[in-house]
Amino acid sequence: DKGNYRHFMQKEIYEQPEVIGHTLSRYLNLNKLCTTLPKGTSVDFAALDRLVISACGTAFYAGLIGKYWFEKYARIPVDIDIASEFRYREMPVKAGDLALFISQSGETADTLASLRYCKQQGMRIGAVVNVPESTIAREADVVFPTVAGAEIGVASTKAFTCQLSVLASLAIHAGRARGVLSAEREAELVRMLGEVPAYAVKALKVEKDLEKLSQPLSKSNHALYLGRGTNFPLAMEGALKLKEISYIHAEGYAAGELKHGPIALIDESMPVIVVAPHDEIFEKTVSNVQEVAARGGRVILITDARGAAEAGINAWKTIVMPDVPEIAAPIIHAIPVQLLAYHTAVFMGTDVDQPRNLAKSVTVE
Ligand code: M6R
């Protein structure tokens, strides 16, 4: 039931504050300000030499953001690959190390095949899944549930932000277990993550601003998404969302890679969506984006108030997001890229919930 929403995708975007809250409640103790693992799960993060992550599509982008977190907060080296490559790569793995598979449906053929490969190699199998009775959940040793509820729209939205919520919590948990984070730092990060549902409510308020961009964006045949750090996977996620529901060709690039090729694409007709809240690497992203603006590219800057004030870019449009702490930023900045793709697709009249050629669950390789 779509309720008062026009599409399941829009409903699912709006469910995010609630389902992120449900998911976080399984991993955070907001009274004691510490992380907790769901009942019955245990992982010895202190003993890990390495973490292997594999997934497809949007779940893979969640994993990429997870890599930044596990490396930064827990100092665990992370190896990540899309499952269709991973399964044939014959990667050397160490028995006993943890392999993490991320999947909304829990039925994706390539992800399942990668899981079975790692299991054969004697690895411990963890799964971040949304469907508890799915094959991937059943075959994993440890299940880290997302509590997104049923996701009907083919374009994944709430499952993605719930996956991010789980990965952020696990990274903090691992950081504490490995002695990288102090109890005080853990408490601080937990408090920040606990605010994500409230930040998400604020983030949804940018919908009208993004809707105004749908008409001009629909006139473009191409779009480029840029970001650095955890905003780089978000750029790829934004491009994937736009491609799959509006059929506009889009690419997500690391902002620093621009001058290694894609800048040749920039002219007055190229919309460039930049995900850049004011963080440690903001200045670096800005200097890349200045090169885009100087070549006439139409910059849509998704940032926060401080970023908007300090960017000094002649942006075509600036979307001002709420101020959020760094650990919350990837989850919150997923929302505007979802809404931009959604409204562009609605404006173009595509079948938003059932885009052509796509299935919700890809059970063949
Ligand atoms: O069910 P899964 O999370 O394993 O699915 C993975 C991808 O097929 C999925 O994320 C796909 O990329 C979405 N349509 C993206 O919106």
TrEMBL record:
BP-aspect Gene Ontology terms: carbohydrate metabolic process; fructose 6-phosphate metabolic process; protein N-linked glycosylation; UDP-N-acetylglucosamine metabolic process
Active-site residue numbers: 360 (for fru-6p isomerization activity)
Catalysed reaction, written as an equation: D-fructose 6-phosphate + L-glutamine = D-glucosamine 6-phosphate + L-glutamate
Claim: Transferase is one of the keywords in the record: yes
Top-level taxonomic group: Bacteria
Any one of the GO CC terms: cytosol
Subunit annotation: Homodimer.
Record's protein name: Glutamine--fructose-6-phosphate aminotransferase [isomerizing]
Species the sequence originates in: Stappia sediminis
Taxonomic lineage from the root: Bacteria, Pseudomonadati, Pseudomonadota, Alphaproteobacteria, Hyphomicrobiales
Gene name for this UniProt entry: glmS
